[in-house]
């Protein structure tokens, strides 16, 4: 299925459905307050995790190591902050999952294993060959 279809059609439909369900259970005013509360708490934790990741990256740089995990963590924390700003419960859940370091590691490991499997498949289809130059027109 097209990812743009999922982002622009299915995600807002899911968010509206969840807002209606939660609003029916706890009330409209409490639902709006809950949305603001999750955004404020989430952004606070995103700021805290971002600073921790920055400190860890600086330590790696001082030790002459490439801070690859920290760069990926920083990008995922920025995405989590964006998801937490967007009103809705599903995006808040995804944002909070990206803020927790354990779930970030699980997602990164899953992505790297999938990429490694794809690289192994493409390497098995490689055909070795040799280029032979046949220059008849040279004097």
Search tags:
139 residues, mainly alpha, 0% strand
Task: Provide a short characterization of the protein structure.
By secondary structure, the chain is mainly alpha-helical.
| Radius of gyration based on Cα positions | 23 Å
Shape estimate: flat
User: In what range is the share of β-strand residues?
Assistant: under 5%
**SSE sequence, one letter per element:** HHHHH
pLDDT < 50 runs, ≥5 residues: none
Helix content class: over 70%
Distance between the amino and carboxyl termini: 59 Å
Mean pLDDT over the full residue set: 87
Largest sheet: none
Annotation, overall tally of beta strands = 0
DSSP summary: helix tally: 5
- Class per helix and strand makeup: mainly alpha
Write down the domain tally: 1
Write the layout of secondary structure elements.
Layout: H1 3-26, H2 28-62, H3 68-85, H4 89-99, H5 101-124
Helix pairs in contact: 1-2, 2-3, 2-4, 3-4
Describe the protein's architecture and organization:
There is one protein chain. This protein is mostly helical. It has one domain (19-116). The chain contains five helices and no strands. The protein has helices at 3-26, 28-62, 68-85, 89-99, 101-124. Helix 1 (3-26) packs across helix 2.
């Amino acid at each position: 299925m097209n990812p743009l279809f999922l982002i622009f059609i299915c995600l807002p439909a899911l968010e509206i459905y969840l807002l209606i369900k939660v609003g029916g259970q706890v009330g409209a005013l409490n639902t709006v307050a809950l949305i603001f509360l999750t955004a404020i708490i989430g952004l606070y934790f995103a700021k805290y995790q971002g600073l921790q990741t920055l400190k860890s990256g600086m330590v790696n740089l001082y030790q002459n190591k490439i801070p690859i995990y920290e760069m990926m963590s920083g990008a995922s924390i920025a995405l989590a902050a964006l998801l937490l700003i967007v009103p809705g419960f599903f995006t808040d859940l995804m944002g909070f999952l990206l803020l927790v370091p354990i779930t970030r590691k699980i997602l990164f490991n899953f992505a790297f294993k999938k990429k490694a499997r794809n690289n192994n498949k493409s390497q098995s289809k490689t055909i070795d060959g040799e280029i032979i130059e046949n220059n008849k027109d040279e004097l």
